[in-house]
Amino acid sequence: MLDLRFIRENQDLVKKALKDRNLKLDLDDIMRLDEERRNYLSEVESLRSEKNKANDEIGALLKAKKDTKEKIVSMKAISEKTGELEDKLSLIEKELDQKILTIPNIPHSSLPVGDASNNKIVRSWGEEKKFDFKPLSHTELIQSLDIIDLPRATKITGSNFILYKGLGAKLERALINFMLDLHTKKHGYTEVSPPFLVNRASMIGTGQLPKLEEDMYRLKDDDLFLIPTAEVPVTNIFRDEVLEEKALPIYYTAYTACFRREAGSYGKDTKGLIRVHQFDKVEMVKFVKPESSYDELEKLVADAEEILQALGLQYRVAMLSTQDLSFAASKCYDLEAYAPGIGKWLEVSSCSNFESFQARRANIKFKREGTKKLDFVHTLNGSGVALARTVVAILENYQQKDGTVLIPEALRPYLDGLRTITVNP
RNA sequence: GGAGAGUUGGCAGAGUGGUCGAAUGCGGCGGUCUCGAAAACCGUUGUCGUCGUAAGACGAUCGGAGGUUCAAAUCCUCCACUCUCCGCCA
C-alpha cells in the first residue's frame, strides 16, 4: 500500500498512476474520508487527554483518601462522549483502511503508458529453431512420449491439472534442481523451502488480498490459502520485523508448487500445460535498500535470463506497460520463451520491483546504521523460472524428427547423463 | 483432538482495577575516570499516529479482536501462538 500521508501530499501523482493503469478509483472520496478521520481523531484525542487527566486526579484523591464521587460523575460524562466519537472514528478508519488497500502501486516513470499492446520488447536472445519437419505441439508430444497424462490428472482432481509420468516427472525434478543450483551456487541466493499454505495476513502483506481473493484456493475451516507463488511465504518471512542495514541485500530462492484458481479465465489457453491450476516454480525474492532496488531488478532479470540461456531457449524480455503491470508492482519485466510447436511466446517469468509497497503492507523495515531512522525495505521477486510452460518450450524446441526430444545439455547431469526423451516404457 | 500453564519494552523479568508507558537486571547509546581499555559511577534508551515551520504538545500501544467498568497490562469472552502431559500419526 501507499503511505496515506504520501497520497495526501501527492494526489496528482496518485491520480496519474490510476489513470495510467486505467483504473477507476475515486481518490477524492478517499481524501475526504481521510480529512474526516483526522477531524474526528483530533477531537477524540483531546477528549482522551481530558479523560486521562481526570483519571489521574481520581488516583490522587484515592491516595489522599478523599472523596472521589464528584470526579467520577464528571469523568463518566467525558467517557460517554469519548466512546460515541470513538465509535464513529473507528467506522471511518475501517472504511479508509479498506480503501487504501485497493490503491495500486505507482508505475515507474520508465514504463510505456497504455495497455498490453504497448509492452516494450527491450531485448531478445537466441534464434528461432529451424525444423526440417513440421514441429509438433507439446500436447501431441506429451501424448506420444507418454510423459504427461492430462486425462488422468483430470480424473484425479479436475481439468487443468498435471500428472507427470516417468521421464516427464524426472524432467520436472531435474529442472527444479538445476535452477536452484544455479541461483544458489552462482547468483548468491539462499535456498528456502517455505510452507505452501499461508494465512490471511501474509496474503495481504504481499498484495494478493483483498483484491484477488476469488483467484485463490482457500481452506475455509482454517482461513488459510494455497500459495499462488512462493513470493507470498518468502516475502512474509520478515513481516513485522526490523532488519539490520548490513544484512541487506537478502537474496532468497525457493522451489514451491503454485496454486491458482484462474477464475474467469475459462476458455483461454485451456488445453495443455499453458494455464494450469497447479504448477512448479523456482522463485527469487530480494530484500534490498531503496536506493539500489532498480539495479537489483536488472540483476534479477539477468539471473532469470541465465536459466533460459543455459537451457538454450529462445526468449524475449518485455517491459510491461502501465496497464499490464500487476497491482503491487512499480516496474516489471516478463520473460517470454518461444514455443515453435504452437508458435507462441510463453510467459515463463515475471520480475518485479515493488519498491516499498509490499514492505509497507507487511511492515518490513530496516535500521540505517548510525541513525535511529527506520526505513521500509524494497522488495523484489521474479520467477526463475515457472515450470509447466518451460517444459512446453523445451519439448517443442528440442523435438526431433523421430518424435523424441533432445535433453538440453545443462539438464543432463540431473538426468543421469540421459540425452534424449524417448517413449516412456 | 483432550487437559493444563503461558504470551509484558532489544533480551530477561516484576507488576492482579486508579499518579503504570510500565519496577529491576542485562544489552545499546552518551559522559566522568584512564595514556588507552576494562571496571565503577552518572545520564539516556521502543514503535506508530495527530497537531505544529519548528521546539514541542497530545494520543495510541503490555499476543490479536471484542466486552465489563467512571477507570483495564490487571477482570470476562473468542481467536492465534508457545510450553508440558495424554491421544493420534508421516
Q: How many individual helices? A: 12
Q: Could you tell me the strand content as a percent range?
A: 15-25%
Helix content: 25-40%
Radius of gyration: 27 Å
Overall form: elongated
Secondary-structure class: alpha+beta
Order of helices and strands: HHHHEHHHEEHEEHEEEHEEEHEEEHEE
Give your account of this protein's structure.
The protein is α+β, with helices and mostly antiparallel strands and 425 residues long. It is built from twelve helices and 16 strands. The protein has helices at residues 4-9, 11-20, 27-63, 69-100, 138-145, 150-156, 167-186, 200-206, 231-235, 293-310, 357-362, 387-398, and strands at residues 120-125, 190-192, 197-199, 218-219, 224-226, 241-244, 250-259, 278-288, 315-319, 331-339, 344-353, 364-367, 374-376, 378-386, 405-406, 420-421. The strands form four sheets. Strands 1-9-10-11-14-8-7-2 form an eight-stranded mixed sheet. Strand 12 and strand 13 (374-376) form a beta hairpin. Helix 3 (27-63) packs antiparallel against helix 4. The longest helix has 37 residues, at 27-63. The protein is elongated, with a radius of gyration of 27 Å. The structure holds one RNA strand of 90 nucleotides.
